[in-house]
TrEMBL record:
SUPFAM superfamilies: HlyD-like secretion proteins (SSF111369). InterPro entries: MdtA-like_BSH, RND_pump_MFP. One of its GO terms (cellular component) is efflux pump complex. Residues 144-171 form a coiled coil. GO terms for molecular function: efflux transmembrane transporter activity. It comes from Halopseudomonas xinjiangensis. Residues 72-198 form the Multidrug resistance protein MdtA-like barrel-sandwich hybrid domain. This is RND family efflux transporter, MFP subunit. Keywords: Coiled coil. Belongs to the membrane fusion protein (MFP) (TC 8.A.1) family.
Length: 275
């Protein structure tokens, strides 16, 4: 083999090595940058362990990592276009269902209601007077019938005005801790998300256990949870069900009393349940 042929072989080999190196580099880059799916994230959680309870010496507990979640939440939307005139509650306040959170600008609705109320007052007075006169034979029945029809019409107008005003009030759809999404003084269209209410009482923790530890988790069992930013709290295992595609795995839901609707600082919790 002459010198030129050997040089060509070396060049081809060098090109092949570079191509393989580039392909390997691309593969590992893709492996690192591709976001983990649900299975990948679940695999990153610490494995369940059994250890002696720090609260009850001699008692064995199963320690599992899980995720907390609110039991209910709801978005508050405007029923009509207009300006957010004022908020009656502070951001982060605890509210009850039906509480008045805020008020949209009423415009001429207040005057409209006042006029309707005045009409009702006059019609009611006339109807009351005519009932007495008709009973005494001083006025015909027809006048009383017309007066009562006027009163009914006036009351319908008042109800319509009050309904329109109620649509301008922003109320809590349920109890919980409220977050204000839009500042007062801002004009918004109908259907705008202006507040969010989260019900965290009770707080719910969800965990998945696989393998030999799955059979150790039973509904009704006591569970102690370490919530970041809150501390150690006690709850009960409310339900246990098999996970989809996992013959020896279970999904458990634990509820923890949380009357102050506290929000844990992180998304994970450590659950300790007696065995």
């Amino acid at each position: 083999m002459n010198k030129r042929a050997r040089r060509g072989i070396w060049l081809v080999a060098l090109v092949i090595v570079l191509a393989v190196a580039l392909a390997a580099g691309w593969y590992w880059t893709q492996q690192i940058e591709t976001p983990l799916g649900e299975a990948g994230q679940a695999g990153a959680l610490p494995e369940p362990v059994i250890r002696e309870s720090k609260v009850q010496p001699g008692e064995q507990v199963l320690v599992v990592a899980g995720q907390w979640r609110a039991l209910r939440e709801a978005t508050v939307r405007t029923h009509s276009a207009g300006q957010i005139a004022t908020w009656n509650v502070q951001d982060g306040a605890i509210v009850e269902e039906g509480d008045l959170l805020g008020q949209m600008a009423l415009g001429d609705l207040q005057a409209r209601r006042g006029q309707a109320q005045a009409r009702v007052n006059i019609a009611r007075h006339q109807a009351r007077t005519l009932r007495q006169l008709v009973a005494g034979g001083y006025e015909p029945q027809e006048r009383l019938t017309a007066a009562e029809a006027e009163l009914e019409s006036a009351q319908a107008e008042l109800a319509s005005a009050e309904q329109a005003m109620e649509l301008m009030r922003i109320r809590a759809p349920m109890g919980g801790r409220v977050s204000i999404l839009v500042e007062s003084g801002v004009d918004v269209p109908e259907g705008t998300d202006v507040a969010h209410v989260v019900d965290r009482d009770p707080l719910q923790a969800v965990l998945r256990v696989e393998g030999k530890h799955a059979a150790r988790l039973n509904a009704g069992a006591l569970a102690r949870l370490d919530l970041p930013g809150v501390g150690t709290v006690e709850g009960r295992v409310m339900s246990v069900s098999k996970t989809t595609g996992q013959k020896d795995g279970v999904r458990a839901e634990i509820e923890i009393p949380n009357p102050d609707h506290l929000q844990p600082a992180g998304s994970s919790v450590e659950i300790r349940t007696p065995l």
